[in-house]
Specification:
Elements (H helix, E strand, L loop, with lengths): L2 H16 L2 H6 L7 H24 L2 H11 L3 H21 L2 H9 L1 H12 L6 H24 L2 H23 L5 H19 L8 H26 L4 H8 L1 H14 L5 H26 L5
Helix pairs in contact: 1-11, 1-12, 1-13, 3-4, 3-10, 3-11, 5-9, 5-10, 6-9, 6-13, 6-14, 7-8, 7-9, 8-9, 8-14, 12-14
């Protein structure tokens, strides 16, 4: 397979992996608390990120070298990753899966806006239009959340989305940083914080433990790795379109497995968000192929 085909495959696998977060959380038993689940999830994510970093560096000395390269940037990156993991899981627990996936799915547009503000990256008029459309979609979902008792969960989802935006901006600011090492430190923060919040009581049923480990590795770990590799092989706009499969399949899995059906207003807001992201990515692809296009 050539680089283009590999990039498309990895991007699609990344979106599919990330879409498993909702059904995994919904399949947990009542015996497992959210902080217990989050502690094991973050622990397995940490282990996988450092394992990938070791594989990429080739030795522990190589990992240490990458860690030294991070320098002071390790703290903000790790905090953003840890905060994002906490918000994402608490969002899934406190609101509909569709709400979380749609709100987090708007991140590419908000990232472009944040890059324009902080890094001076170009943002076209069409980008601003897509941003306003995405804000409108999120507003529709928040209005539905206030009426349906999902406001707290929606706020957590918004926190996860902004954490993702901050993470991407930090990585663009320091492009030489190994994302796997930095993310591993973020997973450590999430693990310690969640373990503290549950009072160190980490014993959960074996089935729930398996779900938590799968969430940290197969869902977010492999999903993150696939998207990272895809971004090195194909344009970012193509990666954005492929990762949108998360927002499509995430609500679909829980509808098929748990019979969790989102209300019409959630679907409306989600449609507006997905349409704005798809249009934003499509315009970005056209601009890459024709730089003179306004």
């Amino acid at each position: 397979m050539n680089h283009q085909a590999l990039g498309l495959t990895y991007g699609l696998l990344g979106g599919l992996s990330l879409s498993l977060g909702g059904p995994i959380v919904r399949l947990l038993s009542e015996e497992t608390g959210s902080w217990q689940f989050l502690a094991w999830r973050s622990y397995s994510f940490t282990f996988l990120m450092f394992a990938i970093a070791l594989w990429r560096a080739g030795s522990l000395r190589g990992v240490a070298h990458e860690t030294r390269k991070i320098g002071w940037m390790v703290l903000p990156i790790a905090c953003v990753v840890g905060f994002g993991q906490v918000c994402y899981v608490l969002g899934l627990i406190n609101t509909l899966v569709a709400n979380v996936t749609f709100i987090v799915g708007s991140a590419p547009i908000f990232t472009a806006f944040a890059a324009w503000l902080t890094l001076g990256e170009r943002l076209t008029v069409r980008g601003f239009i897509a941003l306003f459309a995405a804000v409108a979609g999120v507003a529709i979902m928040f209005k539905d959340g206030m009426a349906g008792g999902h406001l707290i969960g929606n706020l957590f989802a918004l926190g996860a989305m902004f954490a993702y935006v901050a993470y991407v901006i930090l990585l663009r600011y320091a492009r030489s940083i190994d994302t796997f090492v930095a993310s591993g430190f973020g997973g450590m923060i999430g693990t310690v914080f969640a373990a503290y919040m549950c009072g160190g009581e980490l014993t959960i049923p074996n089935a729930d433990l398996a779900l938590a480990l799968a969430s940290g590795t197969i869902q977010v770990g492999f999903g993150f790795a696939f998207v990272t590799v895809a971004s090195k092989l194909i344009p970012a706009a193509q990666v954005t379109l492929l990762v949108m499969t998360e927002a499509v399949f995430g609500p679909l899995w829980v509808w098929l497995l748990i019979n969790e059906v989102p209300p019409p207003t959630t679907l409306l807001g989600g449609f507006v968000i997905l349409a704005s992201v798809a249009a934003f990515a499509s315009f970005a692809l056209m601009d890459e192929r024709n730089p003179q296009r306004l």
